[in-house]
Amino acid sequence: MEIIKFFVELRYKGLHRLFTVYDQLYATLTGEEVERAPVIIPGFGLGVKEKKMRLIVDPERSVVDMEYVPNPGYCIDIVMQVFRRINELIPLPPLIRLGARSFWIKPANISFEELVLRYKDRLFKENALVQSSVDVGLSLRSEHEGCGVNISFRPAELVSLQSLLFSPPSELPQVSTFLDIDYYLRTEGLDYSEKDIRDFVKRAYDFAIGTSQKVEAIIVEVLR
Amino acid sequence: MMFVTSPALTEMVENRMGVYIPLYGRFEDNQGRVQFEIATIELPLAADSWLVRWAGHPEVSFEDLRAGHLPKPSADELAARREAIKSAHEIRAKLDIRPLTTQVLIRQLRDGSEE
User: Fold this and answer.
1) pLDDT, position B11
2) What is the pLDDT of residue B17?
3) How many domains does chain B have?
C-alpha cells in the first residue's frame, strides 16, 4: 500500500504558555495569579506548500501534518525539528496523549460498487444489514507495546480521498481501499524527552508499515 | 478575519521557522486559528549531515539508503562476485577445508587429533 499522509499530534495536559501571555503579563505585573478563566489567544497554523506540510500549534495541542512522505526517516526528522523549535521558544507542557496517524491507499481497477460487493462477500457474514448497505468498512481496535491502535479500512472513491487531504495529488486513483491507522499513547501527564517522542514516532511508523502490509494481503484476497 | 498582534507568534514564525511573513498573509482559518501560508521552510534533515559515497554508484543518496532503495549491482560487480566465489571454491578445494561441526570438534578433543 502507498502512504499518502502521516501526522503526529502532541496533546497537552494543560494550556501551552505561549497562548496565555496576558495572564502571564498580569501575574508578572501584579505578583498574583488571575482568578478568572485564562485569556487564550488563537491557535497558529502554518501551511508549507513545497513540502506539502501543515503545522498546527494550538493552546492544547501541536500537530505536524505531512502529505509528502518519502520515507520514515524524513518524517521523523521533520516532526522532531518542528517540536524542538516550538519547545525552544516556550517549553511544551506535559502530555496526555501522543498520537501518530497515517493514511494509506491501495488502488483497485474495478468500480466502487464492485469493490463494495467484494468486501461484503469476502469480509462480512451475510445478513440483512450488510446486504442493504451501499458502503462498508472495517473498524478495529488493537494494542501494541502499551500503545492503543485504531485501524479502519474501507473502499473509497476519489472524491472521498480528496476530502481527507489538504494537498491532494493529481494522480489519486478513482477507486481504492483506504486504510487509516491511528497509533496513540494516552497518559495522565507524561513528562517526556526528545528521545521518547522520536522512539514513539518511529515505533508508530514501523507498526503502520507492518499493518499496511497485512491489510494489503487481505485486499489481494478480496480482489482475487 | 483578524490580524496577528502577538509578538510571540511573530517571533516563532520569523525567527524560529526562519521565514519572513508579510503582514497581509495573516488571517484566521475557519477554526479560529491564525493561518500562515509559505512556500517552504528550512528544516535540516539527517540527510544534510551525511554524505554517502558508494563505490560504483555515485547516484545513491542518504535518502535512498534510508528508504531502502538499494542500487542493483552492475555487470562489473556481478563478474567480480562470480570471480571471488570461484576463487573461494578453488582455495577450499586446494586446502581441503571442511566445516568444523560440533561432532568434529568433540571427536578432535576426545582423540587429541585434528583429523
Assistant:
1) 55
2) 52
3) 3
Using alpha carbons, select from A142, A135, A138, A132 the residue that is nearest to residue A179: A138
* Number of A–B residue contacts, CB under 8 Å: 94
Query: Is B70 near chain A, with CB under 8 Å?
Result: no
Is the domain of B81 the same as that of B107?
yes
Sort B88 into a burial class: Cβ within 10 Å, 0-12 / 13-18 / 19+.
exposed
Count of domains for chain A: 1
Model confidence pLDDT, tens digit, residues A84-121 = 999 999 999 999 999 999 999 999 999 999 999 999 99
B83 and B63 both lie in a single domain: no
Q: Which residues contact B65 (CB under 8 A, 6 or more apart)?
A: B52
Give the domain extent around A168: 2-223
Same domain, B106 and B78: yes
Do residues A68 and A44 touch, judged by C-beta distance below 8 A? no
Q: Which of chain A's residues have a Cβ under 8 Å away from the Cβ of B37?
A: 46-47, 49
On chain B, the residues whose CB falls within 8 A of the CB of A20 are: none
- Residue A186's contacts (CB-CB under 8 Å, 6 or more residues apart) are A96, A97, A148
Q: CA-to-CA distance for A172 and A159, rounded, in angstroms?
A: 10
pLDDT for position A101: 96
B33 part of contact set with chain A, CB < 8 Å:
yes
Question: Does B1 reside within a domain?
Answer: no
For a pLDDT cut of 70, what percent of chain A falls above it? Answer: 100
Inter-chain touch B39–A48, beta carbons under 8 Å: yes
Cell numbers standing for residue A127:
445478513
ipTM of the complex: 0.80
In a domain, B26, yes or no: yes
Q: What is the C-alpha separation between B102 and B13, in angstroms, rounded?
A: 66
Which range of residues forms the domain containing residue B11? 7-43
Report chain A residues whose CB lies below 8 A from the CB of B43. 51, 77-78, 81-82
Long-range contacts of residues A218-221, Cβ cutoff 8 Å, at least 24 apart: A218/A123, A219/A1, A219/A106, A219/A108, A219/A153, A219/A177, A221/A122
